[in-house]
Specification:
By secondary structure, the protein is α/β, with parallel strands linked by helices. It has one domain: Alpha/Beta hydrolase fold, catalytic domain (Rossmann fold). It has eight helices and ten strands. Helix 7 links the parallel strand 9 and strand 10. Helix 2 crosses helix 3. The chain starts with a strand and ends in a 7-residue tail after the last helix.
């Protein structure tokens, strides 16, 4: 079953879709989309993943950050800190749903959403599984690229997206590799070897920061968002297997 849902984040409405499996209460996972993305994601990547997870017994919540998709707010107001707050609200909303086992919750993030997911996992002690797809680790690259373009302006026109100065200012206080030190559960990083948007070295940086708790899976020749049926299927399958195993109820001895 798929249900349209909404919940508040700092007084504004966040919109999402909740995928509910046949047997509940079930483990759950929130899905954090990427920069200028939305709850469906490019080539419906998140739709396919959420439906696959649901078919294998997981409750999945994919949602739009404020200023993206159908959620309230303007993109010009978007910062990573605001997106972390939205992810915290989504996590709390999912944990409170009767269809969900609140002790078996995970987080999945794509690209900039991977940075958000990493920060959330480092702060939220209830996260039991962390999956990162092509995750941004080195935010200084964004600062170096965008600062000259923004200059003295308050808004940068990025192909029709109004990126505000607060986004750039906020990045100076964001360090996902430091934040992730607060997370001590199992984790998975999935990265395409031909990713030209976020280099595969960022995925490796997360693998090192997470130590033996993390598995790095490289999708050979894949781009940033796994833009082929084969790449997409591989990313979804390996992630679903990880989440199902990591969020399974503990076996009694």
């Amino acid at each position: 079953m798929e249900v349209q849902v909404s919940f508040p984040s700092d007084g504004e409405v966040v919109v999402g879709v909740l995928h509910i499996p046949e047997r509940t209460p079930a483990p759950g996972v929130i899905m954090c989309h990427g920069f200028t993305g939305h709850k469906a994601e490019t080539h419906r990547l998140f739709v396919g993943a959420a439906r696959d997870f649901c078919q294998h017994g997981l409750t999945a919540l994919r949602f739009d950050f404020r200023g993206s998709g159908d959620s309230a707010g303007e993109f010009q107001e978007m910062t990573v800190s605001r997106e972390i707050a939205d992810a915290e609200a989504a996590f709390g909303f999912l944990a409170a749903r009767p269809e969900v086992n609140p002790s078996r919750l995970g987080v999945l993030g794509l690209s900039l959403g991977g940075c958000v997911a990493a920060c959330l996992a480092g702060r939220e002690q209830r996260v039991r599984a962390l999956a990162l797809w092509a995750p941004l680790a080195r935010v200084n690259r964004l600062i170096d690229r965008m600062a000259p373009e923004l200059g003295s302006h308050q808004v940068l026109d990025m192909q029709g997206w109004a990126l505000g100065r607060p986004f750039l200012d906020d990045l100076h206080g964001i360090d996902p590799l430091k934040e992730i030190e607060g997370y001590h559960g199992p984790s998975l990083v999935v990265h395409g070897t031909a990713d030209e948007s976020v280099p595969p070295s960022d995925g490796s940086d997360y693998r090192v920061a997470l130590g033996g708790r993390c598995r790095l899976h490289q999708v050979q020749s894949a781009d940033h968002v796994f833009s082929s049926l084969t790449w997409k299927a591989e990313a979804i399958e390996v992630t679903r297997e990880f989440l199902v195993e990591a969020l399974a109820p503990a076996q009694r001895v």
